[in-house]
Write a structure and sequence with these properties.
This protein is an alpha+beta fold. The chain contains 6 helices and 6 strands; from the N terminus they run ααβααββββαβα. The termini are far apart. The model has no long low-confidence stretch (mean pLDDT 89).
Length: 146
Amino acid sequence: MTPWTEGALERLHSASGRRGSARQLVVELLGEQDCCLSAQEIHDAVRARGGRVGIASVYRALEGMDALGLVQRIDLGDGVARFEPAHAGGDHHHHLVCDDCGKVEPFEDARLESAISRVAEGRGYSVAAHEVVLRGACEDCRHDHG
């Protein structure tokens, strides 16, 4: 179990007093991910592992985690909310999205983070959160279109 998974399960239990198996399955799956997943993708992945969970339970688990700040809700511009673990200390990544095939790839860039801080501070803002989504065509789709 990852440190995020253990911490998330403890916070959820403290907040609700319950230890739901559906919630645990969702937390464990998210804790293993490198990037964001939609509620449907989480549901499908948990069921593929043999977990017995309904889509409504997945949404309830995500809502509870979101309310506690355990997950980051990601909007990639396609109308589907995606979720990934919110790590202490603000460690996070951003996303490249292919408009052709829908592939989503995470990326990190220290210079981009520095530039975001510089812009915010230069305008007197204290930024609590941010996300960057770069849209276009992935390498495979660029080659397919010649």
